[in-house]
Amino acid sequence: LGFVTIIGHPDADMHHGVVSFNVNGIHPHDVASILDMDQVAIRAGHHCAMPLLKGMGLAGANRVSLALYNDSEDLERFFVALDQALELLR
Question: Is 5 assigned a catalytic role?
Answer without folding.
Answer: no
